[in-house]
Structures are given as structure tokens and as C-alpha cells.
Amino acid sequence: MALDSLVVRCIVDELNKKILGGKIDKIHQPENDEVSLNIRNNKENFKLILSSSASNPRIYLANNYKKENPINAPMFCMLLRKYIQGGVITNISQIDFERIIKISVESFDELKEKTTKNIIIEIMGRHSNIILTHEKDNKIIDSIKRIPLSVSRVRQILPSQTYVLPPSQNKLNPLNNISFIDFQNQIKSFNGSLEKSIYSKFLGISPLVSKEILSRANINPNLNTDEIEFNDFNNLYDSFSNVFELINKNTYSPCMIIDENIDKLIDFSCIDLSLFKNLKNIKNESISKILEDFYTTKDIKERINQRSTDLRKSISIKLDRLYNKLKKQEEELKESENADIYKIKGELITSYIYMIEKGMEKVNLINFYDENQEELEIKLNKNLTPSENAQKYFKKYNKMKTAKKEIKSQIEISLEEINYLENIILSIENCENIDELLDIKEELIKVGYTRGSIKNKKENKSNTKPLEFLSSDGFKILVGKNNKQNDNLTLKIASNDDIWLHTKNIPGSHVIIKTEGKDIPENTIYEGAMLAGFFSKSKMSSQVPVDYTKKKNVKKPSGSKPGMVIYNTNSTIYVTPNEELVTKLKVK
Asked: Which of 275, 315, 325, 490 is the most buried (most CB within 10 A)?
């Protein structure tokens, strides 16, 4: 799952065809590590996205880009506007078959003279960057990520410094005509698997392309380099040469692989991927379209993960404290269960008071409450009289008896709070967009778990909706993704005769089966229960207990936290969550 040098070359080819000679109209920076350029060329509008995200670095022409821009533009965005807004793109190239793209922009400077600036996009995982330089002297104007000496001793990216390329990897460039002998020597010089040898010895090749080359040659990728026979070497060389012959001719086949059973994007490339012949292969003439489709969902998940880091950390700390508190409460409860022993000790001291004198530290008395009439050792305070020692034990008995009720009450409160916060963690994991994360944050502000301000009611109208599924019998099934949706689903959307489902004593989503006045088949009940299990903390478990009942049996106690309900007259079914069935039932 890598945007390798082959894909970069394909992108450069597409950009040259579509935006070379275009004028940069607008520049925005919706994320700390992402820039969008509005470009007008040949009476068409294009939106070029440059991202230096550590997880999903990329560059592509977007068709469906809906990120909001900040009210105040970041400094790097302002700098780009100053130097290249209104400029014309004069050159787009890939540097040395590396994952580096250079876009040259010609514009007027403050003295109304034409100058050229270069936007350099380095796609290198966590080291990815977007850098603006002067063409004339190659000096860095600034970058979206500044790299000082304290971060890297090898290569600094700072204003006024000369831009230098990343250190060479000392690999052969596969676009050069590599002879069979050179190819063979490179492979044989590597100690390890054939798959790893190809991407380790040749520039710009990802593990995916390496596997594809071996697949086309019908060779086991796990085979060691010293185990390959001469005929296999010929086949491997032919497969390798054929791939890069097409790349040299700028002949591409952008595609994306999907596992339809779980509706999951597996990988993408700019060459045909025969490797995944059993999976769905979606092709498109535009590599940008492939990249946009592939990265949109991944990027949203990544942004949600970034923005929820502090929230999840805060909740995790609270949960750890609650679990420790619960452990102590359970220990106190266990101790209070033995309260009767203090009463017995007090009564034995009273009964045998004539045998006890002040100054004694302990006494052994026959316990007439015990069936075997065994002796019981009772510790005494030598500074107290026998009567005072007895009263001390009676007082402790009464205190622990009263505490037992209070501790039970406190344990219930702790368990309720733990369940609520576990539900919040699950809700964050279920988030599919930023609005849903904002719903969770606002809820936590309302209940006092975190600080912050809540938008007014008009601005607070969320468009987030529960997930929708269709059972194999044709019944609509709705699943809440957070407490706000759960409450809305159970208390407003569901009618009294609808079926309500939830994992038994396990944090999870509210699930509603819409009956429409009909009897619900057992298979639909099972599918609804399976969805409840899948969207719960026990997603990866087997035989998950799920309670179900009519919605009219579900009530929300007054003053309870969001998403918290009580119910009765329920049945229980045990299910094992199945991702393939979830995908099959989901309404697309």
C-alpha cells in the first residue's frame, strides 16, 4: 500500500497533460500538512491536492474535495499566495525516479519581474514534505514542515538554506536499460527472499510491484535468491523488463483492488495487478481518480484519529482511575462481608468479661457461635477496659454494616461510569466523519468530562445519521454510532413495536429492527444481533450475548447519561460477529 515511484511517474504524466501551462488562481491549506491549489487551464478548473501526511502522503487532482478552510490562513499558505498565486505552471517533473515531484511556477515578484519558484513535493512516509524554493539559486523559501538540526543531523529543511536532495539509496534505476547480467548479479548479491531483493536493489519499486513482477514470472516470492534456477531467472528478467518498458513509454493501467466480501480497499497501482486475480479490480484512466477513491476514507480515519488523540488519552486516564477505584471498592465490600465477625468478638468479650483484665493484648475464647466450639483469638487494646474493647468491636461492626450498603451503591455508580466511558471510546472508533467526533466532544462537555464551549443550538444541528442495513428478509436495521445517535434512534426514530437490540452488559451500539407492523423472522433477529455484536466492544469475540426486546420495554431513567437505558422482558441470543455479513447487509 505505497505510492511508489511508478505511481509518481504516472501522476507526473497526468499532471503534464492536464495542468501544464495552467494558472494558479487560489491557494488554501485546510490541514497542517495539506495544501490545495485551484488551477485554471484550457478553460477548465482543476484542484491539485498536495499532502505531506505522515500516514497518507500524496498528490492528485481532486474531483470531490470538501474540506473546510480555516478562517485564518496558516503561515505557509500565506507564503505560497505571496510567491506563486497568479503564477503559471511551466514545468512538472519527477526527480531521478524518486518519489519527488517538482512543479515550476513562473510569476511576477515585487519588482514586477518574472521569476520562477519550485514547489517540491517529497513523498517519503513520515519524512514527507512540501518545500518552496527559488529556481535561480535553489534556496529554500520555506516548507510546510521545517526540519531543524535537532530533528535531523543529515538534512535540514529551513528558510534560506540551499535545497539538497535526500541521501542517495545507491540502487539501480530500472528505467535505464539494465542488462540480464547486471540484473542477475544484483539479485544474487542480495541475501534473502526474491521479493525483497527486487525492491532492495532497484530504485522506486514497492513490495507490491515486486510481488507483481514475481507473480507474472510465476515464481514463489518467498524463494531465496540462491535457490532460483537459470530458466526462472530468464522469466523474472522478462517480467521485470516488460513492466518498465511500459513505464518508459508512459503506458499505464491505473487500478484499485477491492475485497468485496468485506468491502475493503486492498491496494492500488499504475500497472495491471494480476497478483489479485480473485479480487475485484477497478480500473480508471486517471491515476488521480484512483488515488482520491483510495485515500479519501483512509484520510478521514487518520484525521479523526489525530483530532481525537487528546480526547482518547483523557478518557483512558479516567478509565484507569475508575478501574483502580472499583478494585478498592470491591476489596472494601469483601471486607464488609465479614462484618459479623466483629459483632461476634464483641459479644464473646462481653460474655467472658470476667476472664479479661485491662492491659491484656489478646485473649483466646471459646466461640460458642461456631459448630465445633473452636477457640477464637481476639486482639485487645491494652489501654482499654474489657467493656471498652467490646464496644470498640460493636462500633466497628455497625460502621461496616452501614458501609456495606454505601459501598454497593458506589460500585454501581463506578460501573455505570466505566460503561459510559467505554461506550465513548467505542463511539470514537465508529466515527466516519469529523461531525460525529464533534458530537462526542459536545456530549462530553455537557456531562462535564471535558472543558470547552458548545455552539448555539442553531449551529449545533448535526447531520450525522445512524448506519442503515437491510436484512436478508427485507427489514430495515438501524445502528447508532454514538450516544447521541443511540438516544435519537431509540427514543425518537423507533416505534413501540420495533425490535431493540444491545449486547448484554457490554458497551455497544443501539440496534433497531423496523417491523412496519410485521412479524420478524428469526433470521432477521439473528442478523440484527450480529450487527449489535459487531458494533460493540466484543467485535472480535465469539458467542457474544445480545439482548433483544420490543422498543416499548426500553426506558431512559431520568437524569441518566446519554445512551444509557434500562429494559425488561428481554430474550438473549448468542452470535459471533461476521464482517462479511455486515458488508453484505449494509445499504450502500
From this structure: 490
